Amino acid sequence: MNIPVPESPIAGMDLCDHLAVVKGTAARGGAGAVPTVWPDTIAVLRFAHFAEDGLGGAADFQRRLTAPAALSPWSGSTELKYAFRLKTVTLWKLTGADPNNAAHWTLVPGPFDAAWWLPSWRAAIIEGGDTTGPSTEEGRELGLFSWDPRAWSRWLGEGSQEVPGNPGNTIEHVCDEVAPADPSCAYGRAREYAYGVLGQFRAEPPAGAAFPSRFKVFARFLDGLDAGMLAALGADAGWTWIPGAVAPLHGAIDLHGTVLAEGWRFPSWRAVGKIVGTAPIVLPLSKPLLGGELVLEVCTDKDAAVVTTGICDAMPSGDGMIDGFTGKSKTKYSGSSLQPFLVGDQWALRLLKNVLEGQYPGTIDAVAVDVDPNGSTATLTAYDANNGVLGTATTVGAGRQWLRIEAPGIVKMRLTGEKQPVVYEVLGRKRPILDLVTFKPSDWPQVIAVDIHDKQTALEPEILKGEGECPKLRYKLPESDGWTRVEVAPWNRGDVALVALCGVTSRRGRPSRPRSTTAPR
Fold this sequence. Notes:
Distance between the termini: 26 Å
Strand content: over 45%
């Protein structure tokens, strides 16, 4: 591939006095008459594009002020970009009669003072409107033979009243309303590795943005959760963990002029091929957004796994003996000489005849009993509809313990003991994962935005594109003092993919002193 050689980024050299007022221009390429200079002359190299300082610490010109950093060294079009690096700057003295003869020039070694400074050709404030805004990629200027060129002062004095860079023009515009930054989008397709999180997504400014918003979106779980824990607890419930990944969308979408065919699919669980739900995802922002939008693709599964929190029955309250009760789960418990009593703030049930049976209204796949064997043995047995034994669990000792049996088709449980065991709670299904992850039925994923004041706002979805099983949804971030993160709740109807998070980071600020900032080329 033949890459075109770019033009030199050096736009020229001005010769200034100690106040940085331009007194002359150096001839380019050694052609033309040699300009007159004075002892306080400052030579100012002007760059059309940002150039990385590659002179090194042993260069003849010692930079006393560090070059203002750029977020990106690249300049050019969307099809072809270049990056420039300044490698050498040397001083030569004319020691002969002919300035066009290289032999008549002698190298003058340093060190000499030098300083990078921002260009001063335009206004010292950001004007807004259609005026080109600042950019970190704008070309700098390198002042030679001085460490403090004070670039802004060059436009003071007669004849420069109409020059945009005249700091005297700042006062009348310092309180003018300015335009917001141009919005940018972080795309799910561009997921990058980042330590300690699920990934990061860099905002990509649109082509031609004068003052682009620059931010990063991170993806992580809720505090206290990690992939290992969620995968393990899900496995205990019979779920298979599916990690997050960049994956094709179910139909491309044109979002603000950018065609997107991939997104970042949220981590999720499945059971026997059916979706159980997506993991809770938090999307923190590296900078607050004043407004924006979250775009998700949601794909509804026809067959979603039924997620239940389990059947949990507390023991009844009251005085005296009972021979049975109905639990909150509609399970009917029975036994001879059952004695309720209060332990602290919890009711318990003593089995004076050492037996408690429970008949479930339907079938369950696990049963657990919180029991104190009272220093002896306690045994839990699970039965099917034909009164066949599906499993048993036994414990011995004193103090509260859990007995558990997992088996499909349980319709009845029976707890027996030897020394009047005490029962505190009976669970039809104990899934620790559901203590950490809550699946609330909803047509679409529930999204909450959190601002800089830690105030939460629920965002409503609107269908951006597509009908049927995999539409693209937009959740609009209204204008605010700044949104710091977006939280997407678990969704148990299908898969969710991050398409984009777009927004504006800040309004154009003004410098604290009368000097120019930067602008794109």
